[in-house]
Structures are given as C-alpha cells and as structure tokens.
Amino acid sequence: MDKVFHIRTFSSPNGAYQEVELDLPATDYELLDAMEQLRLEDGKHPYLEFHAVEEYDYLNERIQETDIFPLNALAKRLAELDTRGMAVFEGLVCMDIQKGVETIPIGSLIDYAYSGECCHVLEDAVTDEELGRFLVENGFIPETDAIPDATLELLDYAQIGKNHREAEGSTFTGFGYVERHSEPRQVYKTLDLTPKKPAYTILAETYDGNRVEFPYPANAPMGTEPVRCVDCTAPSLIGLTSGMETVDLLARRLAGLEPKALTAYKALLEATDCKDILSAGALMDSLDNYVFSPQYSSPIEVAKGELSLILCEPDAATLAPHLNLYQYGQALIEKCGGVLTPYGLIEPRGPHMSPAERVMWGAEEQGSERSFRLQAETEVNGLCDDAGQPVQGMEESPQQGGMEMM
C-alpha cells in the first residue's frame, strides 16, 4: 500500500517525552503499537505533525487539527484511489479553497475521498482555452450552434472557458478540469476508526505477492517457500524473511504471549536490533533472563527511582533539582547493561539487582522498616504489654468508681 503521510506524534507521560514516527496508512498492529509507545493517559490525545507525499502536498496546510486514527482512515482511502478519484478529491478540496476556506475538517476530506462519482472530470482540459473549445465543440454553449465553422476560430475560447468555470465554481487540478454535479457522499460518520487486533499475529507475503496469515490453519498443507513479514504484532519483525514453517512457529509463540510478556519481547527486539526470524525465536527463549520495567521512559525517571531508594522522599525531592538527573540515569542504565526502549527499560538479570529490582526491593524494605519502627516506638513508650498488644491509654480506659464529668 502506498504511503500518503509521514507523521510525528508526541506525548509526555509523567512529564517524560515520547515521540513516535510512522508512515500512514498504517496497519492496525502499527497503530496499536504506536499507542502503546505513547503511553497516553485516559482521555488524552497526542500532539500530531504530518507531511503529505508529493501527490497530496496541497493538504499540508489545509487539514484542521485532527487525531491519528481519522488521519489514517483518510490515508488508507487516498492510497486506494485511481487517477480519476485523485482528480475528484483534489478538485473538491480546491473548490473549498476557492470559496475562502483555509482549513478543512478531516471528516469532510474523508467524505471527498469516497465521492468519486459526484464530479465530471475532463482530463484533456488544463487551461480555460482548452475548456472553452471543448464546451463549444460538444454543444454546451447553445449560442455558438449557428456560427459557421470558419467563424468559430474567431471566438475567444479562453474567455468562454473562464466564464463557465467561474459560473460553475469548478476548478483545474493536476489531473485536468473538475466540475461538481452532485453532493459528496456522507461516509465519515459511518466509519469505525478504532484499530482492532487482527486475527493473525504475522501477515507475510510470498515473492509473487500472495499474502499468507500466520498461525497457519492446523492440518492444512504448508509450503516451504520463503515469505516476508509485512505486518506483525511485534512491528520490529516487519521486513524479515524466512521459511513458512519457521514463520508459523514464531507466530504461534507470539499468539501465546501474555500482553506484558509481549511488550517485554518487543522491547528486547528493539534493544537487540534483531534482523532475522531465527534470532527472534531465540530471543523469545531468553525473555526470563531480562528484567523489563515499562514504567521507565527516560533516564530521568530511572534516576528518580534510584533516589527514592537511597533517600527518604523529602530528601530526594530536595536534592533532585541540584542534580543532572539525565546523566545520572544514563549512568545507572549503562552500569546495569540495560537499554531504554520506546516500551520501557530492559536489562539483563545478573548477580546484582538492576535499578528496577532495587526500587521494588527498597519499597518492600521501607514498608517493613516503617512497621518495625512503629512497633519499636510503641514498646519504648510502654504502650505494649508483654504479649505485644497495645495498652489502652488513659483516655480510652474505662472509668471505675469515679464521677462522670459533665
């Protein structure tokens, strides 16, 4: 599928900076993966920048602020258009611009992309003179029907074409003259733009262009020819090639991964820059040898996590503004041999605890220490009996033989 837009989308989860670059139209797996990397909070939308390819560069300053899913729906439809459809789409956009419209809602653009039958297209007319000559020669200007052929050449065809174009509100495009004769279709409101998880885990393509979904149907005869991954639940595998049996085995193993394990696996593929299917399978076998910390999206977060372990919270908050947290976090990551990926921090298990393990251990130890200190303070103050049960204070103990104060 041809690419229509290149996008950069940004978010700032927990104050950190996340950026994802993607070509549209993207597959549902690619969109879901982008959302996972952006780590958006509920109800939040990422900031979006985009640039259209040359055929649609007139859209770069014309689309109203939008989200990634509608923009992908537009890109998907534009990538399917033939020359006539492209002419109609450009014509409808140009007609809006001629009316003084500066930016166009994404919903209207999607409707235009599905409205190829609402316009006349004259590919051979790219100037007013060519349009005027076509109109006269084909009987669209009744006033010229009685004029002798020898005299017709004296007509100002450019003025005739211009008058007609302006009267109809029509336009010239890179594909010829376009004139609307009916209203565009209303399609946008009927579309479900939310990406859905496909039934396959790997979509592959043979050398002759046939597409095969994996896992392959059980008990169905499978070929041995090599196939290339064109879509996958782990997008890092897109573009890799291997035999069908090897791809099928990896697809089945991917289908069996729990969501958290799948994210860790994607992080490991990213960290190792995996370049072949066999290595991808071996990396899945080694997942237990790594610690994955999705909560970390920047070295600063790693540094803050370490500070929360070695200092109490008020001291950590006091010290943090005076440190280069970014460099400190990078040093911690380098020390443990980890890699910060778009999915989080992944690091090998070793004889020493990783930053993530240290923070988890520290939280548990601090909880136990607080309980210990509370009990110790209680005993020192004489507020526990020999069995370790709290002794009631004077305010709580029942009054015996006394007079109630009113």
Overall average residue pLDDT = 85
Counting DSSP E segments of at least 2 residues, the number of strands comes to 13
Oligomer: single chain
Order of helix and strand elements from N to C terminus = EEHEHHHEHHHEEEEEEHHHEHHHEEH
State the share of residues found in helices, binned by percent.
40-55%
Figure out the total of helices: 14
Give the structural class.
Answer: alpha+beta
Structurally, how many domains make up the residues? 4
N-to-C CA distance: 87 Å
User: What share of residues are in beta strands?
Assistant: 15-25%
Low-confidence stretches: 360-406
Major β-sheet, in short? 4 strands, antiparallel
Radius of gyration: 34 Å
Spatial ordering of strands, largest sheet = 8-7-9-10
Shape: elongated
